[in-house]
Amino acid sequence: MDVFALAERSMRMDDDAWERHANPLSVWSRVAVLPLLVISVWSRLWLGWWCLVPIAALAIFIGVNPRLFPPPTRRDSWAARATYGERLFLARKDRPVPRHHERAALILTAIAVAGLLPLAVGLAVLEVWPTLFGLVLTMVGKLWFCDRMVWLYEDMRNGEPQAACSGG
Prior knowledge:
mainly alpha; 10 helices
Protein backbone atom coordinates (compact mmCIF):
# COMPACT_ATOMS: atom_id res chain seq x y z
CA MET A 1 0.00 0.00 0.00
CA ASP A 2 1.42 3.37 -1.04
CA VAL A 3 0.49 5.88 1.66
CA PHE A 4 1.68 8.73 -0.55
CA ALA A 5 -0.62 7.80 -3.44
CA LEU A 6 -3.50 7.30 -1.00
CA ALA A 7 -3.00 10.83 0.34
CA GLU A 8 -2.89 12.22 -3.20
CA ARG A 9 -6.13 10.43 -4.12
CA SER A 10 -7.85 11.58 -0.93
CA MET A 11 -7.05 15.20 -1.85
CA ARG A 12 -8.28 14.61 -5.43
CA MET A 13 -5.17 16.20 -6.85
CA ASP A 14 -5.26 16.68 -10.62
CA ASP A 15 -2.77 18.56 -12.80
CA ASP A 16 -4.47 21.91 -12.18
CA ALA A 17 -4.52 21.41 -8.39
CA TRP A 18 -0.84 20.43 -8.39
CA GLU A 19 0.10 23.49 -10.41
CA ARG A 20 -1.86 25.77 -8.07
CA HIS A 21 -0.35 24.04 -5.04
CA ALA A 22 3.12 24.93 -6.37
CA ASN A 23 2.34 28.53 -5.44
CA PRO A 24 4.47 29.42 -2.39
CA LEU A 25 1.36 30.86 -0.69
CA SER A 26 -0.22 27.42 -0.90
CA VAL A 27 2.85 25.62 0.40
CA TRP A 28 3.63 27.96 3.27
CA SER A 29 0.02 28.32 4.38
CA ARG A 30 -0.19 24.54 4.57
CA VAL A 31 2.99 24.47 6.63
CA ALA A 32 1.28 26.81 9.10
CA VAL A 33 -1.73 24.51 9.52
CA LEU A 34 -0.19 22.02 11.98
CA PRO A 35 0.94 24.63 14.53
CA LEU A 36 -2.46 26.34 14.19
CA LEU A 37 -4.17 22.99 14.70
CA VAL A 38 -2.11 22.41 17.85
CA ILE A 39 -3.17 25.82 19.19
CA SER A 40 -6.78 25.10 18.25
CA VAL A 41 -6.82 21.76 20.08
CA TRP A 42 -5.07 23.31 23.08
CA SER A 43 -7.65 26.10 23.08
CA ARG A 44 -10.22 23.68 24.46
CA LEU A 45 -8.97 24.88 27.84
CA TRP A 46 -10.41 28.34 27.34
CA LEU A 47 -12.88 27.83 24.46
CA GLY A 48 -14.40 24.53 25.48
CA TRP A 49 -16.33 22.90 22.64
CA TRP A 50 -15.95 26.12 20.61
CA CYS A 51 -12.42 24.91 19.84
CA LEU A 52 -14.09 22.77 17.18
CA VAL A 53 -14.75 25.91 15.11
CA PRO A 54 -11.08 26.65 14.31
CA ILE A 55 -10.37 22.92 13.99
CA ALA A 56 -13.15 22.58 11.41
CA ALA A 57 -11.97 25.73 9.61
CA LEU A 58 -8.45 24.30 9.37
CA ALA A 59 -9.79 20.97 8.09
CA ILE A 60 -11.73 22.79 5.36
CA PHE A 61 -8.69 24.91 4.55
CA ILE A 62 -6.53 21.79 4.08
CA GLY A 63 -9.06 20.50 1.56
CA VAL A 64 -9.35 23.68 -0.49
CA ASN A 65 -5.76 24.91 -0.15
CA PRO A 66 -4.31 23.21 -3.25
CA ARG A 67 -6.97 24.92 -5.37
CA LEU A 68 -7.16 28.25 -3.56
CA PHE A 69 -4.15 30.04 -5.03
CA PRO A 70 -3.27 30.73 -8.67
CA PRO A 71 -0.38 28.90 -10.33
CA PRO A 72 2.98 30.36 -9.31
CA THR A 73 4.37 33.28 -11.24
CA ARG A 74 7.87 31.85 -10.75
CA ARG A 75 8.42 28.15 -11.14
CA ASP A 76 11.91 28.19 -9.61
CA SER A 77 10.98 28.98 -5.99
CA TRP A 78 11.82 26.45 -3.30
CA ALA A 79 8.11 25.81 -2.71
CA ALA A 80 7.36 25.23 -6.40
CA ARG A 81 10.34 22.90 -6.83
CA ALA A 82 9.33 20.98 -3.68
CA THR A 83 5.86 20.51 -5.15
CA TYR A 84 7.18 19.43 -8.55
CA GLY A 85 9.57 17.02 -6.82
CA GLU A 86 6.74 15.54 -4.80
CA ARG A 87 4.81 14.93 -8.02
CA LEU A 88 7.82 13.11 -9.44
CA PHE A 89 8.13 11.08 -6.25
CA LEU A 90 4.46 10.12 -6.39
CA ALA A 91 4.88 8.97 -10.00
CA ARG A 92 7.90 6.81 -9.13
CA LYS A 93 6.16 3.58 -10.16
CA ASP A 94 5.78 4.90 -13.72
CA ARG A 95 9.01 6.93 -13.83
CA PRO A 96 11.55 5.54 -11.35
CA VAL A 97 13.41 8.02 -9.17
CA PRO A 98 16.97 7.55 -7.92
CA ARG A 99 16.93 4.99 -5.09
CA HIS A 100 18.72 7.30 -2.65
CA HIS A 101 15.91 9.86 -2.97
CA GLU A 102 13.22 7.24 -2.44
CA ARG A 103 14.97 5.86 0.64
CA ALA A 104 15.46 9.34 2.12
CA ALA A 105 11.83 10.28 1.45
CA LEU A 106 10.60 7.17 3.24
CA ILE A 107 12.88 7.78 6.23
CA LEU A 108 11.87 11.44 6.48
CA THR A 109 8.20 10.52 6.25
CA ALA A 110 8.72 7.98 9.04
CA ILE A 111 10.29 10.71 11.17
CA ALA A 112 7.35 13.03 10.52
CA VAL A 113 4.85 10.27 11.31
CA ALA A 114 6.77 9.30 14.47
CA GLY A 115 6.20 12.82 15.77
CA LEU A 116 2.43 12.34 15.59
CA LEU A 117 2.35 9.99 18.61
CA PRO A 118 3.95 12.33 21.16
CA LEU A 119 2.02 15.20 19.59
CA ALA A 120 -1.30 13.39 20.02
CA VAL A 121 -0.45 12.27 23.55
CA GLY A 122 0.69 15.75 24.52
CA LEU A 123 -2.50 17.29 23.17
CA ALA A 124 -4.68 14.64 24.82
CA VAL A 125 -3.21 15.24 28.27
CA LEU A 126 -2.27 18.89 27.69
CA GLU A 127 1.42 18.43 28.38
CA VAL A 128 3.68 21.03 26.77
CA TRP A 129 6.87 19.01 26.24
CA PRO A 130 5.47 15.99 24.40
CA THR A 131 3.30 18.35 22.35
CA LEU A 132 6.26 20.50 21.35
CA PHE A 133 8.52 17.50 20.77
CA GLY A 134 5.94 15.86 18.52
CA LEU A 135 5.24 19.10 16.68
CA VAL A 136 8.92 19.78 16.04
CA LEU A 137 9.61 16.19 14.97
CA THR A 138 6.67 16.20 12.57
CA MET A 139 7.47 19.62 11.13
CA VAL A 140 11.20 18.91 10.74
CA GLY A 141 10.45 15.59 9.06
CA LYS A 142 7.96 17.16 6.65
CA LEU A 143 10.08 20.20 5.79
CA TRP A 144 13.17 18.06 5.31
CA PHE A 145 11.07 15.78 3.07
CA CYS A 146 10.08 18.87 1.05
CA ASP A 147 13.71 19.92 0.78
CA ARG A 148 14.58 16.44 -0.43
CA MET A 149 11.86 16.78 -3.07
CA VAL A 150 13.59 19.94 -4.31
CA TRP A 151 16.80 17.91 -4.65
CA LEU A 152 14.91 15.11 -6.42
CA TYR A 153 13.33 17.59 -8.82
CA GLU A 154 16.69 19.16 -9.64
CA ASP A 155 18.31 15.76 -10.17
CA MET A 156 15.49 14.54 -12.40
CA ARG A 157 15.30 17.81 -14.32
CA ASN A 158 19.05 17.98 -14.91
CA GLY A 159 19.74 14.28 -15.35
CA GLU A 160 16.58 13.07 -17.04
CA PRO A 161 14.74 16.01 -18.61
CA GLN A 162 11.98 13.78 -20.00
CA ALA A 163 11.18 12.61 -16.44
CA ALA A 164 10.80 16.06 -14.92
CA CYS A 165 7.50 17.86 -14.62
CA SER A 166 6.77 20.53 -17.14
CA GLY A 167 7.94 22.99 -14.48
CA GLY A 168 11.34 23.31 -16.17
